[in-house]
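Mods, move this if it's the wrong board.
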Amino acid sequence: MLSIGQLANRTGVKIPTIRYYEKLGLIQPPHRSQGNQRRYEPDALKRLSFIKHSRDLGIKIKAIHELIDLSENPQKPCAEADRIAREHLSDIQNKIASLHLLEKELKRISSQCHGKTVGQCYVIQSLSDHTMCLDDH
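Not the wrong board. Structure tokens:
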């Protein structure tokens, strides 16, 4: 059995986050010691590591719930898990494309700024007038 502190140390997940995951039902409620201290089964370490890795990859809580449900039925085909991963990949690719547009526009705006005062600053003017941008970002 592990205390919440031991679980936090071994996974790198902060104690309030562990409690939050309990509240969401991602982690089974722990047993309580005589002194009402949370005592986690060894499986909680594996589950919390799964959740942390998923969150590190940016997977949303709802999808983690679905993946946990799937993992509890190992006989099921993995098509649903693949779908979740593909959807998340698509979201990430869309964000990357959007960030590339933002990068391009910010480079353009900052390279156009030749004013000596804020009143002549192209950056300030561009941020005040979206029509000065090349793309809809």
